[in-house]
Amino acid sequence: MKTAFQLDRLVHGYWRLKQWNLTPQQLLQLTEQVIELGIRTFDHAACYGSFTNEEAFGQALKLKPSLRQEITLITKCGILFPSQEFPTIDSHYYDNSYEHIVASAERSIAKMQCDYLDLLLIHRLSPCVDPEQVAKAFEHLHNSGKVRYFGVSNYTPSKFSMLQSYLDQPLLTNQIEMSPLHLAPFDDGTLDYLMEKRVRPMAWSPLAGGELFNKDNPAGVRVRKALLEIGQRFNETHIDTLAYAWLLSHPAKITPVIGSGELRRIQRAVDALSIQFSEQDWIEVYKASQGHDIP
């Protein structure tokens, strides 16, 4: 199964949009500035901001509807918890049912005022998922023109393979946690499987949720030292730029999700596109994170 859709090398993420405290006009300005930097893909989830972030983005997009044709919109569904938006929900759980997937996608389209979604991800797989329900929902959303493509997030290789076996369309990505401080996907077979299937992964929390800058984190201290030593050859001193470059240099063609609302931080991620770590460079950072030499 092949598709013409390709993920961009960098994606702007809206997990913390609520914390940015931006007016719709300010958010529109930020979005246009991000586009000017060459980033045209924006990552959302129904549950971000306690189910309010998509609407905030929609209010900004409403100010310039023509912008929709210039961007790629990704969102996720399946995580539910008590909130003002859903007062009848009284517990934290996953819903991968046909009804929820369709309703969530339609809600995301309405909240973001975007007419359709480019890519819809199942945020997390329910332990008791019925894959036939997911397949039915994907088929309906695709045939109705509401969603162009589909993927997943936080899936193991076996769960990815299981769900794919029920689908007519290829899953286009698996958005997983990856950073110089979170090495599990490089060692547990997750990236190996995605590379085997020629699936481009997305990396959430590529800066380890800020732990990369924590002076009290021993692994963070070691990784920062290794990154800065390598950065000297590129005349680069920004830790975040070098951390993004480390991910971007991996042959799996990882797409980091940039979760900052500060334009200067987003620019630093873009700067990483011009830096290519050698395999030796890459492993030096890997060893620093582990705290010991490779076998």
From TrEMBL:
Keyword hit for Hydrolase: no
Pfam families: Aldo_ket_red
UniProt domain NADP-dependent oxidoreductase: residue ranges: 10-285
GO CC term (a single one): cytosol
GO MF: oxidoreductase activity
Keyword terms of this UniProt record: NADP, Oxidoreductase
Gene3D superfamilies assigned: NADP-dependent oxidoreductase domain (3.20.20.100)
Domain of life, per lineage: Bacteria
Protein family according to the UniProt entry: Belongs to the aldo/keto reductase family. Aldo/keto reductase 2 subfamily.
The protein, known as: Predicted oxidoreductase
Source organism of the structure: Pasteurella testudinis DSM 23072
